[in-house]
Design brief:
The chain has 796 residues and is α+β, with helices and mostly antiparallel strands. It contains 26 helices and 28 strands. The strands form six sheets. The protein has a seven-stranded mixed beta sheet with strand order 16-28-27-26-17-24-25. Strand 26, helix 24 and strand 27 form a beta-alpha-beta unit. Helix 7 packs antiparallel against helix 8 and helix 8 runs antiparallel to helix 10. The longest helix is centred in the last third of the chain and has 34 residues.
Length: 796
């Protein structure tokens, strides 16, 4: 950055720069943004990238966004509106670097009415949850505009909520490049077939026509590469578009020189062919990325079901089979899968998964409830009003990132390699040019310069990671294990310690031998117990609910579920408590019971307990023995130690812990990580959310109930538990394919550079080979990953 450049955007400040706080600015807009950030202690924005801002061309009129004050407009834009809390997603084209991400995710420091904000860098979207009583939608948009992150709000936004569905600009540029390429090649054919230049008049005419056609080719079809490279250079950033832009400009200016000095036809034909094939390769890459994104959003269904009420009878139904008008029952701690109307029960809904605001909201029959909320106070029934959209739940899941990475991801490593790679390529290209110039061969020198710049591109290197791990993620999804994103696969390769919960994780909640020990319960008391366990999603409650399947429940009031302890409610004026001995019996726990026990207290009188003999999941013995050979393993259980002797066959004595409360589980995981361990926690997602948030990888086991943990990184269908070892092994081995893909990419670049430096590789051929290398890497990673899956993951 020179001494006369704007500290905000990097533009030339001219003769009379604006000065504020000893800093120079090119315009008042940049000065205002800088002043606003400094007043709110957001100077760190400028530490991630030098001159990260974009120059503000024209200030917006104060009334430009007045239409956002209209209720009907706001209702169409909001994704969520409950009381004074709203959630909205904006498409912001100017998002371009890490500084943008940092600033947009710290909007709450600019206005206290903003609760939470998160950025999807690939889609250039920012999702904001805010308090409408403290900042209106119009004020929020004007705040974004004031720091020059202008949302794209159009009629298309209001009608479809699809802000940038189709962009045909690239297709138009390919069309122009194809037109120019066809015509220029036609004008060049006489010289190709004649073997020598044409006569002066005709040859000169064709040279000029080809040169004229090169203008829209370079400055329209090739403009993206030139603009991208120039903008990043002004900010002191070297990106992968720089070598391509240099190659385009080198061919163009040499063509200018040769045509205007009548030395020859120049390189219009080479330039046209180069850009045409280059843009086709770019289109192919974008289509492939879109395909990957589409699969992630709509085809990776969560392996969960929802309880649908049919003629008053609960039936487990696949989520994708739920339609508008269906009645679904949600138990305590279950997530609402679709927008609907509350028809039965009193709801206390936690929307923190959606908005970041953790205060539960009370709902009564007739109220509208939104997808993504978690019911926290007993069973309710809702009528589905809007189509179930897995993409919405997936988006919420992906945005919920409570944990910080403890290792450097391959993505950041590849970004660093790409920068040095680009610098190295430019040095090699210039060296090759100077070498041939020293031999007096200017034409070969130009061909070497452009061919080296074009043929050597880190695109194939950059594509090997997302396509390999993206394919692995999709394959795991088809087999019954669903990952939040490809970073989870990277994390799985680092895992060295496994921690298991027992109840509902290693055991089957609906396949147990259940006996009641204590005073004989009356029919009313049994119905009262049924009323409570039916509303709880805890595995032991579900086991008792299954055992009492034919019993009709009663109406409860004041249902509360205390994580890791039990439940209580009032049934017809009588207090009922179910749970652990410590919870029900005021700390007098009988630790010598031979199985898991659920104690019952009716009107403060302990009646006895349900003795539940656990049945372990199919494949439990094989899975634990296999994993024990490769990982350090622990068992953390909230139950008593009745089955300790049995579990000692699978876990070491000092690595089994019973009677663990949720807080103790979380502290245990935190202690392991403080020792440098990379930990994967496997649980049922109900009482393990704290431990999930502390672990490096959180794996939730899903049974037939709608079972989903926002803190989780992955979900595995309970029926696929026997494949767990194979799933982890496959994820770890997929990284080998990434490394082999790296090798292929480097080999391609070495061979391409060697041939280019000899002067035997034309820029047109280089432009064909460049996307071909990406195709090769994508094809190899896809087929190799699928082959690995067939070899490592059993069919059943």
């Amino acid at each position: 950055m020179t001494e006369n450049t704007c500290i905000h955007c990097g533009a030339d400040c001219g003769k009379d720069p604006l000065i504020y706080s000893m800093q120079k600015f090119c315009c008042s807009g940049c000065k205002q943004v800088y002043q606003l950030l400094n007043e709110n202690q957001l100077q760190q924005y400028y530490t991630f990238e030098t001159t990260p801002g974009v120059r503000i061309a024209d200030p917006d009129h104060s009334s430009k966004y007045a239409f956002l004050d209209k209720v009907e407009v706001r209702q169409k834009l909001y994704e969520f509106l409950e009381g004074q809390t709203a959630r909205i997603t904006f498409y912001i084209p100017s998002i371009h670097c890490v500084s943008c991400i940092w600033l947009l995710e710290h909007l709450s420091r600019l206005n206290s009415g903003i609760i939470q904000s998160s950025v999807d860098f690939v889609r250039k979207e920012v999702t904001v949850s805010f308090n409408t009583s403290r900042i209106s939608l119009r004020e929020l948009v004007e705040l974004l505009v004031s720091i020059h992150y202008i949302p794209d709000i159009s009629l298309k936004t209001l009608e479809k909520k699809e802000i940038h569905s189709i962009d045909r600009t690239l297709l138009y540029k390919i069309g122009v490049a194809g037109f120019v390429f066809g015509n220029v090649m036609m004008y060049s054919l006489p010289e190709y077939f004649n073997g020598k230049p044409l006569g002066d008049s005709l040859g000169t005419f064709l040279h000029y026509i080809s040169f004229i056609l090169a203008f829209p080719l370079v400055f329209y079809s090739g403009s993206d590469y030139i603009i991208s490279a120039s903008k990043n250079l002004r900010k002191g950033i070297i990106n992968i578009d720089l070598p391509i832009a240099l190659g385009i400009l080198a061919l163009f200016f040499v063509t200018c020189y040769e045509v205007f000095t009548s030395r020859g036809p120049g390189y219009s034909d080479t330039l046209a062919g180069f850009l045409f094939f280059l843009l086709i390769g770019k289109w192919y890459q974008s289509k492939t990325y879109q395909s990957l994104s589409f699969d992630r959003d709509y085809k990776s269904y969560f392996p969960v079901a929802v309880t649908k009420m049919e003629n008053g009878i609960p039936q487990s139904t696949l989520l994708e089979d739920i339609t508008v008008g269906d009645l679904i029952m949600l138990r305590s701690k279950e997530l609402i899968p679709a927008d609907g109307i509350l028809t039965e029960g009193s709801a206390l809904i936690d929307y923190s998964f959606v908005t970041g605001e953790s205060v539960p909201i009370k709902k009564v029959p007739g109220d509208f409830v939104y997808a993504g909320g978690i019911q926290t106070s007993g069973a309710i029934t809702i009528r589905v009003e809007r189509e179930v959209k897995q993409s919405h739940l997936t988006q919420l899941w992906n945005q919920n990132e409570p944990k910080q990475a403890t290792f450097r991801s391959l993505t950041s490593l590849i970004d660093s390699i790409s920068v040095y790679f680009t610098i190295t390529i430019i040095i090699i290209a210039v060296s090759g040019f100077l070498g041939w110039m020293a031999k007096g061969d200017f034409r070969t020198a130009i061909l070497v310069l452009t061919s080296v710049l074009i043929v050597a591109c880190p695109c194939a290197l950059a594509m090997s990671l997302p396509f390999t791990l993206g394919t692995a993620m999709r394959i795991l999804g088809t087999k019954g294990m669903y990952l939040k994103n490809i970073r989870v696969i990277e994390k799985l390769t680092k895992i060295d310690t496994l921690v298991f919960d027992k109840t509902g994780t290693l055991t089957k909640p609906d396949r147990n031998e259940i006996n009641f020990i204590g005073e004989k319960l009356t029919e009313w008391e049994i119905s009262a117990v049924k009323s409570l366990v039916q509303q709880s999603a805890h595995p032991l409650s579900q086991a008792i609910d299954w055992h009492l399947a034919v019993i009709q429940p009663l109406t409860t009031t004041g249902f509360v579920e205390m994580s890791g302890k039990g439940v209580f409610a009032t049934v017809e004026g009588i207090a009922i408590k179910l749970g652990s001995a410590a919870f029900v019996c005021e700390g007098q726990e009988n630790s010598e019971q031979p199985s898991s026990c659920v104690y019952i207290s009716i009107n403060q009188n302990v009646k006895g307990y349900f003795k539940i003999s656990n049945q372990y999941r199919p494949g439990f013995s094989k899975v634990i023995h296999q994993l024990g050979k490769r990982f350090d393993m622990y068992l953390l259980s909230g139950d008593n130690d009745a089955e300790k002797e049995y579990l000692l066959n699978y876990f070491e004595k000092d690595k089994i812990f019973f009677n663990q409360q949720p807080q103790q589980k979380m502290e245990f995981i935190a202690r392991l990580r403080s020792e440098g361990r990379q930990v994967m926690m496997t649980g049922d997602g109900l009482n393990d959310s704290g431990a999930f948030m502390q672990s490096d990888v959180a794996l939730s086991i899903a049974d037939d109930i709608y079972h989903f943990s926002p803190a989780g990184d992955a979900i595995i269908e309970a029926s696929q538990f026997h494949r767990l070892t194979a799933f982890i092994g496959f994820a770890r081995k997929s990284l080998i394919i990434v490394k082999v893909s790296f090798g292929i990419s480097f080999l391609y670049n070495i061979v391409g550079l060697t041939i280019a430096l000899t002067g035997h590789l034309s820029p047109v051929v280089a432009a064909v080979l460049m996307p071909a290398s990406s195709v090769t890497v994508v094809a190899f990673s896809t087929f190799a990953t699928r082959l690995l899956a067939r070899q490592m993951i059993p069919k059943n």
